[in-house]
Amino acid sequence: AFVPGKPTTPRSMISDRRSKVLPLVSLRGLFCIAIALFHSNVRIVFEQLAGCGVVFFFVMSGFFMALQHPAISIEERYHKRYFLPKALRLYAIHWLALLLLLVIHFLFNTYDPHITWKAIVPNVLLLQSYFPDKEIFFSFNSVSWFLCSILCCYFCYPFLAHALKSMRLKYRILLMLALMALYGVALYPIGSEDVIT
To answer: Is the pLDDT of residue 139 over 70?
Structure first.
């Protein structure tokens, strides 16, 4: 029976789909390892792999979201049940890493230019990526900008899926191309040296 707000895709179909994309899951894991090694200063070998790995990880995360939560099953009231468990999982990981970082900082009295106290609230709330200030954006655990972005994707997905599910494929493709063009225009003035520094 159909229950509003609950997935209508049978579990057997979802399991079958998952089994077909297991190589992609493995590939995502390899890219995660490359990104971790890159941030451990093994940059010569992993720089290019890590760069495309971030993009690949976002694309695959979107693919798996759509696979696990088909647009046809998403109603407006579905949002809370979808978003909250994912958000709490991200916050738990982030808060643990932030706590460990602060404990190490105070125990060993280390100097870290990324620890700026004006950024503590945005970091705790995982909102630091929305501040156009390097001291906030890259503060504390600087790579947590990724969690901030993933959280935004989790928040937006049910709304986007609900809005796009009635749109024809050709219009979805045109919308995607328009968004990519806007993204390219917005990023064109930003050179790689600006991103690194």
So the answer is: yes
> ∠117-121-123 over CA atoms, to 5°?
90
Please identify which residue in the block is written with the tokens 């979107």. Answer: 62
Specify the length of the chain in residues.
197
Q: What is the pLDDT of residue 119?
A: 84
Tokens of 17: 């789909």
* 95 in Cβ contact with 124 (< 8 Å): yes
CB-based contact 67:14 (threshold 8 Å): yes
pLDDT > 70: percent of the chain: 75
Compute the distance between CA of residue 21 and CA of residue 169 in angstroms, rounded to an integer: 23
d(CA 164, CA 140): 37
H helix and E strand count, the chain = 9, 0
- Residue-wise pLDDT tens digits, 20-52: 677 777 777 777 777 777 777 665 666 666 667
- Axis crossing angle, helix 78-108 with helix 145-164, rounded to the nearest 10: 170
Record the tokens describing residue 32, joined without a space. Answer: 């995660």
Contact 145, 123 (CB under 8 A): no
Taking 90 as the threshold, does the pLDDT of residue 91 lie above it?
yes
